[in-house]
Amino acid sequence: MNIIGLGSAGCNIARKFSKFPEYQTYTIDTNEAADIKIRSRASHEKYDEHVPKIRKKLKLENDECLIVLCGAGKISGGVLRLLEQLGDKAMSILYIQPDLALMSETQKTQERIVRNVLQEYARSGLLQRIYLIDNVYLQKGVGDVPILGYFDVLNQALVNTVHMINVFKNSDPVMGNFVDPSELSRILTIGVLDLEKNEEKWFFDLQNPRDVVYYYGINEEELKTDGTLFKQITEFVKSKIEEKISVSYGVFRTNYEQKYCYCIKYSSMVQSFTEQLDDQDIS
Questions:
Q1: CA distance 25 to 4
Q2: DSSP readout, 79-139?
Q3: What is the C-alpha to C-alpha distance for residues 216 and 159, in angstroms, rounded to an integer?
Q4: What percent of the chain has a predicted confidence (pLDDT) above 90?
Q5: CA 135 to CA 127: how far, in whole Å?
């Protein structure tokens, strides 16, 4: 998979993927540290107007591309032009929503526009999917983090979660009842399940989900000896079944001593729909 980071936050996350051999990573930003440096622009709109032709600089080895960005930065205004240049690829977005309470009104407007437009791209099929990540919820899922290295810790936790879900998606479970999500459910978030408390920690408050999937990673010794696991897992999964929501799971063999569970929640509805209504004159 190709990972393309756009802007400071996107680049920092993309670099975290580079430690895994499964990914080819590129960074696009206005500073010298980026793989592809582009000119700094004064506004969101200027980036949209002046994204340079960089397609040939991206030596993409396969068709699957994950573009990582945060909508608050001005450079995110260039994401649609970047997607145009990658139109022959199977594109997805890993979208980071910052803490909105700490942003200016201009940044909030920029962020909302980018987030909602990209969700509409996903709904229309121009994107394979969009993963929504809220830094506030991500921090809650990770727990207390010191100031020094704060975003490094959050970014690494996010990348590890995405990576392990990708690994499980490309592995055969030892048990499970996976159901393919609806073709219309292209708006996603991810999270972790605390197996001691049976407590979900989602990385975005995704509304109106249609599909939920749990990926359990359990070491082989425990799979052989723990006679309570099947009951624990299936009872939890059954407890999550609601009307109009499909819930499925898979159990995977791992070499790790500790057992863990990652999860995905899918929706077909653009999130923050009420914000869009608030912006419209319906009188």
A1: 6
A2: HHHHHHHTTTSEEEEEEEE--GGGS-HHHHHHHHHHHHHHHHHHHHTSSSEEEEEEHHHHH
A3: 17
A4: 80
A5: 22
Q: Using an 8 Å Cβ cutoff, are 46 and 81 in contact?
A: no
Q: How many CB atoms lie within 10 A of CB 256?
A: 9
How confident is the model over 63-99, as pLDDT tens digits? 999 999 998 889 999 999 999 999 899 999 999 999 9
Look-up: residue for tokens 């197996």? Answer: 195
What CA–CA distance (Å, rounded) separates 219 from 202?
24
Instruction: Provide the token pair at 78.
Output: 């260039």
Q: What are 249's two structure tokens? A: 């799971």
For residue 159, which amino acid is it?
A: V
pLDDT digit string (tens) for 177-229? 998 888 999 999 999 999 999 999 999 999 999 999 999 999 999 999 999 99
- Checking if the pLDDT of 21 tops 50, the result is yes
Backbone angles phi, psi at 225, to 5 degrees: -115, -25
Alpha-carbon 42 to chain mean position: 28
Q: Which of 62, 9, 51, 17 is nearest to 34 (CA)?
A: 9
| CA max distance for the chain | 65
